[in-house]
Amino acid sequence: MTNTSTNPSYQQLPIIDLSAAGRGPQARALLHAQLHSAAHDVGFFQLVGHGVSEAETSALLDVTHRFFALPEADRLALDNVNSPHFRGYTRTGDERTGGSRDWRDQLDIGAERPARVPLPGEPAYWWLQGPNQWPAALPELRTAALGWIDRLSSVAARLLRELLAAIGAPADFYDPVFGERAHPHLKLVRYPGSSGDGADQGVGAHKDYGFLTLLLQDRVGGLQVQRADGLFHDVPPVSGAFVVNLGELLEVATNGYLLATNHRVVSPPGATERFSVPFFYNPRLDARTDPLPFPYATAAPGVTGDPANPLFAEYGRNELKGKLRAHPLVAARHHAELLVPA
Ligand SMILES: O=C(O)CCC(=O)C(=O)O
Ligand SMILES: [Fe+2]
What we know:
Elements (H helix, E strand, L loop, with lengths): L14 E3 L7 H18 L1 E5 L5 H15 L3 H5 L11 E3 L5 E2 L2 E2 L3 E6 L29 H27 L18 E7 L9 E6 L5 E6 L5 E4 L5 E3 L7 E5 L1 H6 L9 E4 L7 E8 L33 H12 L1 H7 L8
Parallel strand pairs: 1-2
Antiparallel strand pairs: 2-12, 3-6, 4-5, 6-7, 7-14, 8-13, 9-12, 9-14, 10-11, 10-13
Helix pairs in contact: 1-4, 2-4
């Protein structure tokens, strides 16, 4: 990949301490100023003071390692090609981003709900609701993953409210699109090192589909975020911090005042493995993202106009667009009628 920047002025990443929200009006006002700038000027930041302990994160990383250490047959028993809901295991090389192969394997997990097959005339995105696939040989993974989804949903809910307040909007404006029927998503990811053929796309440049992503990464590094100079900048691991990116719905919500952050992962060198656990804070599938009332709305530039990646205000549509693109084997097997002929 090209265009990687080594510009030192970009090496200081904003660090946001969420615990400041509970430390009185002055601390909260300072938090809001920092959050406003981090979200508007940079588009991503490191989140600390979130209340998730090191014991909790190491337990999750431990179960992640144990999942990828299972015999391949145990992982392939959960192949997402068998799930019309895009849940389960994707083997290395089966996922595509920007039309090219990603060199990572992963387990996709969502809210645990029964399938809701769309009736004629209903939106196709209801396919995204359905059961997960769990490894029989590692029953504790289910508890850990569903527990992490609950834990991070509440951190993300607090963070979103502070972020909305920080830009002068009603903090609870989007509360109704979350709640019981929200559609959070978790991935357990392994980057198995270099593909050996000269490509270094761990995952290609993309934006996430929802409101906020809270990423737990190990110490290896390789995540890069595109900044205002157009170049990709390393996001070095910070112990105890989650990397937060803004997703496409926040861009839609603010008419481009906040931008969804374009990011990618460069494969680790040689046989080095990297593990990460992105958590995606997504609303209900049938939620429409109403425009956010806030004082900067009139100055907002509008959403990014990329014909290859239209942004949809209806969350389910926005996610389905991405899943069909990223998982062509699942799409071809279960959803051929949804694919636009090339
Ligand atoms: O693994 C990472 O650091 C980032 C993963 C990511 O961007 C994604 O899965 O959407
Ligand atoms: Fe991402």
